[in-house]
Specification:
Three copies of one chain form a homotrimer.
Chain A (H helix, E strand, L loop, with lengths): L4 H17 L4 H29 L2 H11 L2 H12 L3 H28 L5 E2 L2 H28 L3 H29 L1 H4 L6 H5 L6 H33 L3 H13 L1 H12 L3 H27 L12 H18 L3 E2 L1 H20 L1
Antiparallel strand pairs in A: 1-2
């Protein structure tokens, strides 16, 4: 697999470009660009990790944390450029619930079938739960206020900007807290070290070059993918909500999925949880608010008001993931529960 | 009391039959059949336990788990046959909140007045909390989606069937998990053993015969009881919601109530919690979804969409019961809190 | 500061009276009476503590608990007399979220910047969480039932009275539980003792005299303050909700704020939590229901139905405060999180 990565990366990237510029038809284009994005996102992930390695522990952790969802951020950027706010919000929703339910659930199930009980740092689990709650609150409060009190559009946008600012502040605080002031309290006892400690395959210069290259590639493929979505939804009659929340989100998070499951099978559940919960926290506390600010540079501005069903899905996913991970251990059955909730949400979104 | 059980069982059963066929008037019929159902449900419970004893630990546990709410299932069957879906859902709601608030609350209060603090397996409490949350989510999600997105009736039914299937899958997984793969982790340290270990009074053949007999008797009395509800509600002006959620639910769960309180007084709080929380989990994860499938055999089909007030009641009951039992111990005051929430819900349902 | 307290108390009280009777204009009157109420509320707090000291531990604890929010109770009394129910409910909401988010958050942040982790009794934290949940449930249930089922005004009032009675019952039970039957289980290991154990500066007779005097003074200043609110809101265009929830609530709880932060800086986080969480519990379980009963003596009766945004704010504050304090420890970042949620709510209320 490792040997084939680069050939496949380049092949799918070129094929995706060809299909886009030669108009092979929306479905073919969608399928090829969806496969390509998995590879370029994986490439971006590897390059980020390598650069992070050379940057030293602190700056490296920060790079990992902020570039971790770069693919989603770039896909969303092109969606915002096209004014497709509904799909943006649906895909943010999908990323959050996908990480909390599908990634965490599949990891706990895969790991739990091999090990009876998998433990991880209980302090981190508690902190994650509180942060997740903050994210849910920050998305719920403006929505409830706007929906029940009929706040005018201008004030809604201002409210969205302020709440977004508060979330980014919370995220920056979290980076300082978890990487500097309370680093020791939140670490697994040796478990997560190997995940970050591996010697990267590339030299420093190569790593930086690859990071730039990967970002550019993700940018191109994202734009090609986004262009197909419109026709794609009309052909299959699927709602934008379903496409955004399940198709775009699963494709955009494929790298996280495989990494977390592999770690769980090696009994490094702490690292798997960090990927799953950490990713969804990043999306809620960093990607979503940044996108609100980004949209200010375009003609149409995006607010932070999600639909009721999106909020319900996020709230429900946060609740059950928190309830299951709070005790600092998982079993196969808890993984299965998370997957069942994900399936229920998937079916419900499908019928909307 | 033990000596009088069989005479009273037979007497109330015959009286209930007589009142039904001789039309003694709806109120008399209701009162007599309500008393009779307490006895036949108790008989069914005893017979199930005896058969479970002979069936061996695993199959026995399964029998206990699935026959535990047989009385409710049978009552609900006759209500569905009559198309009284509102009362079915109200009585399911009532069973869930009755077990979580009234049974658990009365047990914790009764036990807590004798013992300062009563402890039980903290692992089981955590698992119960997550399962309860799954049940709440599975009932909330379709309701929120249907209510805010105006999903057509046909899709609502399909969504209900799929969610019901997912719940039954979760329930079967739970049986495998708690009885086979993680049995040791979830057991009390000796506490619950005696409850199951007592030698049954009846031989194997007699036990099976009694199980069949009890099921038939519950069937008859349930039908007689259901027939009176209609006139009964119109006479007293009580809403179907109140009748279903409080009258039917209290009558149908009388056996659990007395068993749990008796166990709590003997400081076997773990077993009392298992009855209370286990029963409500069974109703939400097994009885309710099975009834949705059962209704497919009749002309009118029942979906899984509960009313807003029913969902609020279930959500609230699950939250407070979980918050109180999560630490693996109860005190008299926690019991009182649960009873106060039950009273508040009762009053609120009464005013609807 | 201590030496200046009495001169400032008397000066601000007299100034406030002068500004009221000589009509210095609503804004001047508001500012002066807002400053004066901070001092008279502080005076009332000191007098209560002194009388509690002489009354012995049990009666003293009770006095402290019930007089602790006397200032809010008196302000609310005058608002009810004027029929300003919306401001009353907004200020109750503001007191609850102010204590749970602002007081607790500022304490945890102030303490956390000095100490890495501050621990307190985990039993008490769990009990507080369950009680807070009861309070939230008791406010949510009538609101949900009334809003979805269109219950007539007369029944709404009856439901409010019954729920209020249930809450007062729960509060009295809590006093018995925490001060008599389970006192030992809920105490910090020595931490909170000094807070209550200090020798009061006044003799018994003086303390009682001061308690009466302080109550009278709070009464006067409250009335003067309430009189200015009307004009004040119209001048600045702020909603009654914002005025009640933030201005009145912050002014009315100033004493608690400073006390809790000082305790946290002395590493007595247990006592700080008790002030913050205890105060909000008192408001929800005692002050709010008592006000419903009090309103029965006036022409217009106040029910217990809060608006959707108020309920959302209370629910959200209770959830995050519970999530953060449940593990029996706080850090600076958890304090920051609470303050961020408070800021988000403040902005949202401002835009209503």
């Amino acid at each position: 697999m490792k040997k084939l990565f680069f050939p496949l990366l380049i092949a799918t990237f070129i094929l995706s470009g060809l299909s886009h510029y030669m108009h092979w038809g929306p479905i073919t284009e969608f399928v090829i660009s969806a496969i390509a994005i998995v590879f370029v996102a994986g490439f971006l992930g590897k390059a980020t990790e390598a650069v992070a390695h050379y940057a030293g522990q602190r700056l490296g952790g920060f790079l990992n944390a902020t570039f971790g969802n770069a693919a989603e951020l770039i896909i969303a950027f092109f969606l915002i450029k096209e004014g497709m706010f509904d799909i943006v919000k649906a895909s943010l929703t999908g990323s959050i619930i996908g990480n909390l339910l599908l990634v965490l659930g599949a990891s706990a199930l895969a790991g739990g079938l091999k090990f009876k009980e998998q433990k991880f740092n209980i302090h981190l689990a508690g902190q994650n739960a509180s942060l997740m709650l903050l994210a849910v609150i920050a998305l719920f409060i403006p929505a409830i206020f706007v929906k029940t009190e009929h706040i005018p559009e201008k004030d809604t946008l201002m409210l969205s900007l302020i709440v977004s600012g508060a979330l980014i502040l919370a995220y920056v605080g979290w980076l300082i807290y978890s990487m500097i002031t309370h680093k020791d309290m939140l670490e697994d006892q040796e478990e997560t070290q190997p995940a970050h400690g591996e010697e990267p395959a590339w030299s420093k210069g190569k790593a930086i070059l690859y990071l730039v290259l990967a970002t550019v590639m993700v940018g191109f493929v994202s734009e090609w993918l986004v262009h197909t979505l419109d026709t794609f939804t009309t052909k299959f009659g699927l709602s934008e909500l379903f496409i955004g929340a399940f198709v775009v989100a699963i494709v955009g998070n494929a790298a996280e999925h495989s990494a977390a499951i592999m770690l769980a099978r090696k009994n490094k559940m702490g690292a798997a949880v960090e990927i799953a919960v950490g990713s969804s926290l990043q999306i809620a506390l960093f990607v979503a608010p940044v996108l609100v600010f980004v949209s200010m540079f375009f003609k149409d501005h995006m607010n932070l008001i999600f639909t009721t069903v999106e909020l319900a899905a996020i709230g429900v996913a946060a609740l059950i993931a928190t309830s299951i991970s709070r005790d600092g251990s998982t079993t196969w059955y808890e993984g299965k529960l998370l997957l069942i909730v994900y399936a229920i949400l998937g079916v419900a979104f499908f019928f909307v």
